[in-house]
Model the fold of this input.
Amino acid sequence: MAATAWAASTAFAVGDIRRATTVQASGLWFRCTTAGTSGSSEPNWPTDVGNTTNDNTVVWTAFSSVHEELSVLAPSAIIEMFELRLDSSLHGSSDVYRWHSGANDQVTGNIVWNGETYFRAPVQADGFEYKNGGTLPRPTLSVANLDGAVTALLLGVNLTTPGNDLTGATVKRIRTLKRYIDGESSADPNAKFPDEIWRISRKATETRDIVTFELSSAFDLAGQKIPKRQIVANTCQWIYRSAECGYAGSNYFDVNGNSVSALADDVCGKRIASCKLRFGENGELPFGSFPGAGLIR
Done:
């Protein structure tokens, strides 16, 4: 089935199914579990299965738009599509490339989904499974390179950022059922599995036949320090007279805290005492560090 969009100031009965008025990345629909009349403006829809939202006197409960269809005796085939989006600052353009492997249900041509064409291409994607081992998946995406198209794309982006090889580009994995793609009698761009957003972490291999990329989640922050700021007790990390520091006064002191007469000689010593000279002994000090660090073991 295709779900009808939500409507304002409308009476709904228990069991009525509606979708949001815009396509949701979560791929959820909403079932009326408390009858009533909807509000004048669209509610904030939940993003998890089973969660509820109040809509004036109506209560909606979220459910997957595709899972129930998969439980029937002869479910429709799952269609997997990919969208590659470049970053203009890294790759010199914000072009978008869309394709599908065409491996399901004898799909031999291009697919149109939500008005966008996904071109059939030899693509293999693996490693999207989530496991309980405590590590995030690192899927791989392999794209045929027999015509050199991927190599040409890599050469183009490397002119903007040498050696980039599409690192930082966004890959969206979209899955739906064949019955919901454009052109089918029950076409509905709102019926899908939750979108998966990945980023290209590195180019793993490149040959004349195939190019393989390793993907990572936005939550996979390899090599990043937490917290970003180092916990230093007695040295202010703000830039003197910056917005973070906030000092714009005319009392000038040198690095040792001695009073000077010229702005050119005004240098902050980066200590709490330096802050007190400028903001007052009992004033609020915007000290850019962690004086309490090390006091508790």
